[in-house]
TrEMBL record:
Stretches assigned to the FIST C-domain domain: 216-354
Name of the protein described by the UniProt record: Histidine kinase
GO MF term list: kinase activity
Coiled coil spans: none
Domain FIST: residue ranges: 26-215
Alphabetical list of InterPro entries matching this protein: FIST_C, FIST_domain_N
Organism superkingdom: Bacteria
Keywords, alphabetical: Kinase, Transferase
Length: 373
């Protein structure tokens, strides 16, 4: 595995950050992960890196360090032998989808023939058609690279400039970074597939309009009352939704989690991630098996690569569900995996390949582990 290292700059002091940026090696690549509360550090970083050094970065709801959330400063990913990053703009526009897919394919095809590599992508979380874009990308490059990624942005799901390079900030965009000779990432959520199913009889993008021919919210409320004996209202909807998200059942038996995040006046339900019309859905119970994910993640990472450190992305919705157990999950991953350090961020959606193939899939409520050394 080519050099892929992580470090934490534990200060939010602009002077200290500027000094660290001045000392960066211009022959390497760097990607900066910051929490949205430290967005003011972006211009400091942009002005302070050495001339000729191309950087990239993203804002997340919070950073993860020392097994805890809300860390100050920034997480810096250092990459050896990596090409310059690429940023695709107007990513949610269907009119731009083909051109953006072609740019992504050209970027991937710049790799030497037969050289193994991963493609790390960071999407603006408010892009509503990420699943469709991943399908389009696969048609262009198939399994030439091991694709993985996450969503950046604000946990309030309001539009912000959440990606950046040396000169600009971006929203409605995707950051791409090729990682030469890297094995990719492992994703785990642990949700088992229940036996009962419902159908998204009407859906549009990331909005479920009807479930079983009823307004989506009405049917969700009915199911929650029948199964859990709770009264779901518009006011408490999100509090329950993170504990009882939707699952999309794939033909290969894999479950894609979709956490509802909002409602429309007519009772439609917004999710992070698309819901294909007529999908077979199930209502997942986060308490039923998601606690198994840390052990599975650590086991799979140990089988994948001999790594000393771990870059970890932890779904913000999963953190809301797990509460105090979220930090215990990080401790479990560290102890089971034998990692020296775990650094990362809260994510707003996760991307990885199917367990049965390298087909890219969009997830919620998931842990993303990226080996480093």
């Amino acid at each position: 595995m080519a050099g892929f290292r992580i470090q934490r700059w534990d200060s939010s002091d602009p002077v200290a950050i500027s000094k660290r940026c001045n000392e960066l090696n211009a022959s390497l690549r760097y990607c900066f992960l910051l929490s949205e509360k430290d967005a003011s550090l972006i211009p400091v970083i942009q002005k302070s890196v050495p001339d000729g050094l191309r950087i990239s970065g993203a804002l997340f709801p919070a950073l993860l360090a020392d097994g805890r959330f809300d860390a100050a400063g920034c997480i810096v990913i250092e990459m050896q032998a990596a090409p310059e990053p690429v940023i695709l703009e107007n990513a949610s526009s269907e009119a731009c989808m083909a051109d953006n897919a072609a740019r992504m394919a050209q970027y991937v095809k710049s790799l030497p023939a037969n050289e193994p590599a991963a493609l790390f992508c960071i999407f603006d979380a408010l892009i509503p058609n990420i699943g469709t874009q991943l399908d389009t990308w696969y048609l262009h490059v198939a399994d030439r690279v091991r694709l993985f990624g996450v969503n950046a942005g604000s946990e309030s799901f309001t539009a912000i400039d959440c990606l950046f390079d040396n000169e600009r900030l971006y929203r409605d965009a995707v950051l791409l970074q090729i990682l030469p000779d890297h094995p990719g990432a492992i994703l785990e959520h642990g949700y088992p597939a229940p036996a009962e199913f419902i159908t998204a009889t009407s859906a549009e993008g990331n909005k479920i309009i009807q479930i079983d021919w009823q307004p989506a919210l009405d049917r969700y409320r009915q199911i929650m009352f029948e199964r859990k004996g709770v009264e779901v209202t518009r006011e408490n909807f999100y509090n329950y939704a993170v504990h009882f998200p939707f699952g999309i059942m794939r033909a290969d038996g894999e479950v894609l989690v979709r956490i509802p995040v909002g409602l429309t006046e007519d009772g439609s339900i917004y999710c992070i991630g698309e819901i294909p019309a007529n999908s077979f859905l199930t209502l997942l119970d986060a308490a039923a098996g998601s606690h198994k994910a840390p052990a599975r993640l650590a086991e799979s990472l140990n089988a994948m690569s001999d790594c000393s450190d771990l870059l970890l992305f932890y779904c913000a919705g999963r953190r809301l569900h797990r509460g105090p157990e979220a930090e215990k999950e990080i401790d479990e991953i560290r102890s089971r995996g034998g990692f020296r350090s775990i650094l990362g961020a809260l994510s707003l959606g996760e991307i990885g390949t199917s367990h049965q193939s390298r087909y890219p899939l969009f997830h919620n409520a998931t842990l993303v582990g990226v080996p480093c050394r």
